[in-house]
Amino acid sequence: MAGYIGSKASVVSSGAEHKKTFTITGATTSLTGLNYTVGKVHVFQNGVRLVDGTDYTATNGTTITLTAAAQNGDNVVVISQAAFQVADLPEGTPSIDDNGNATAMTITSNEDVLISTTNINPHQDGSGIALRESAGVIIGVDGTHAIIAARHNSDGEVIRVQKDNTTVGSIGVASNEYFAGGSTGGDSYLRYGYSTVAPSTSSGANRDNVINLGSSNSRFKDAYLSGGIYLGGTGSANKLDDYESGSFTPTVLFGSNNSGTTYSNLTAGSYTKIGNVVQVTGRVRLSSKGSGAGTVAVGGLPFAANQDGGIGITFIQNTGSYLFQRFLFLTIDITATKAYLRLLNSSGNFENVQEGSITSSFDVIFSGTYKTNS
Questions:
Q1: What span, in angstroms and rounded, lies between the C-alpha atoms of 224 and 60?
Q2: Cβ neighbour number for residue 38 with a 10 Å cutoff
Q3: Burial of 1 (0-12, 13-18, 19+ CB in 10 A)
Q4: Residue 89 pLDDT exceeds 60
Q5: CA–CA separation, 40 vs 58, rounded Å?
């Protein structure tokens, strides 16, 4: 038996029908190197269609045996249909064929499908797609977005998240905004709009006064706000726009002259400011009152007052004969950071305490509340 040379294969239609041409040299009855489905193969010799089972036998999917040998110079064409056939494509064509100029797709031994990569973890090298049974879909890109999801002509879900067959959340669009959240036990979505993040339903509609931020056993830590917070309502009266706490150093003032005044290391003050209300506590203890003279006041308050008024009750001790262990009242002038000491006299009226009424061991403990514009 002689043989044949010069076979050439090509795709005839959409990759399902395959044509292979044999140019015969010598004489042969065997056509090999085929891949066909038994019963779905056609053989033509010099343009004449041969009859399956009479002129040839095709029973194993890979070879065809001619009843009469093809002779030198004969042209035999086999058109076959197979479950899968690889076409011979021109060199340089992107494909999964060996002639391709790049690896377009790879199917690994674990049946992972790799597109434009040979790495099963393309997010590590920045390019390609991996479809993996053990890890889902992995996408890696270099310098651009990895996924674009768009909904056209209507508002609603773009991406749906499910646990088994139950929808538990989604990401969607509403007008020119998008929303995201979960639906288990009720809508708990956030809508992201123009400089606003607001509660919404699963369709992006407003959801007012329903959703909590955190819970008793699942709390946020710190909140950093440059503006205010509305408590119990949405009006301006409900806005808390400031909270701070700190310390200050109180002083004792004698009119306008405090030359030589010194203090004990027990002198200290602290404050808490909520909105425009200031709560202060402190102690001033003199070591020497120096040469000061005039009306006695406690100075160094942390904020200036926005109205006249009392800021609290003080207890005075070690202050001389008639002030010893008596209660005094502090009053603060508008725009001032000092509070004057006033004593309830025998006539039932408050009078200013003067420098001459106290000693160098003057010790005042005070607390109170006042308002400020700061």
A1: 76
A2: 11
A3: exposed
A4: no
A5: 9
